[in-house]
Write a structure and sequence with these properties.
244 residues; 3 strands; 3-stranded mixed beta sheet; mainly alpha
Length: 244
């Protein structure tokens, strides 16, 4: 039996299970997040926040100032990303009921993933990754280069988000027609992405190494019209260096 997938409905995660009676304690106390240079205020339940993030749990249940004041300053974070995070925290959904993937930009999803990475919110990271995978699988939609470079600037080399965007680009991008866009000020990110992309595309390197270039040398020659082509049977006069 074929399984029909509704690509406009978001599959919700199951943790934490907010409807269970023993989880009511998650809503006992409030914590204040002061976000961005504009110092926008967000109020969230401390137990709920700590249940999804070891980072916030350590800050709010330890001996830090944040635990005493029940206030955490996130002055370098984006308030729009925190607003999406707050919605996800209480609904376990990134999209609202009447929203589809067309309502959310790549930058928001990347921002949420990076937030999850920096605050150890694994459930959020996995949820975002599922949406990104659906974006690629069903819509074949790749992000703009500025977004890719932003991923590289905000993540470490071992990042799963980097690995995903590189493999998605190698699999689904038309590299011949891709509008390569180089941005000033992010040269390191550009270099690292292009290096990773080349390595991903070149994964069949060993197979290509097995090709006898001497036999296909005619592909690299310039011949005039009517001139005989090189024979593949001509012995290679050069000594082939053995592989190390």
């Amino acid at each position: 039996m074929a399984l029909l997938l509704d690509t406009n409905k978001e599959e919700k995660t199951k943790e934490p299970q907010l409807g269970r009676r023993n989880n009511l304690k998650l809503f006992n106390d409030w914590v204040t997040l002061v976000v961005g240079p504009e110092k926008k205020i967000f109020k969230m339940h401390m137990g709920l926040l700590c249940s999804v993030s070891p980072y916030f749990k350590a800050a709010l249940e330890g001996d830090f100032k944040e635990a005493q004041e029940q206030v955490i300053e996130l002055t370098e974070d984006d308030s729009e990303i925190i607003e999406y995070f707050q919605f996800w925290l209480y609904t376990q959904s990134i999209l609202d009921e009447d929203e589809t993937m067309s309502h959310i930009e790549w930058e928001i999803l990347v921002g949420l993933y990076v937030l999850g990475d920096s605050r150890l919110i694994v459930t959020l990271q996995n949820h975002v990754m599922d949406l990104l995978l659906r974006n690629i699988t069903y819509d074949r939609e790749l992000p703009e280069f500025e977004t890719i470079y932003g991923i590289y600037e905000k993540t470490c080399p071992a990042s799963l988000l980097r690995r995903f965007i590189v493999e998605a680009s190698a699999r689904h991008a038309d590299l011949d027609t891709w509008e390569w866009n180089f941005v000033d000020g992010v040269e390191t990110a550009q270099r690292d992405f292009l290096k990773d992309l080349v390595l991903e595309v070149d994964k069949d390197h060993d197979k290509r190494q097995e090709r006898d270039l001497w036999k296909i040398r005619c592909s690299y020659h310039i011949h005039t019209e009517g001139e005989a082509r090189c024979s593949e049977d001509t012995p290679n006069p050069y000594k082939v260096r053995p592989k190390k």
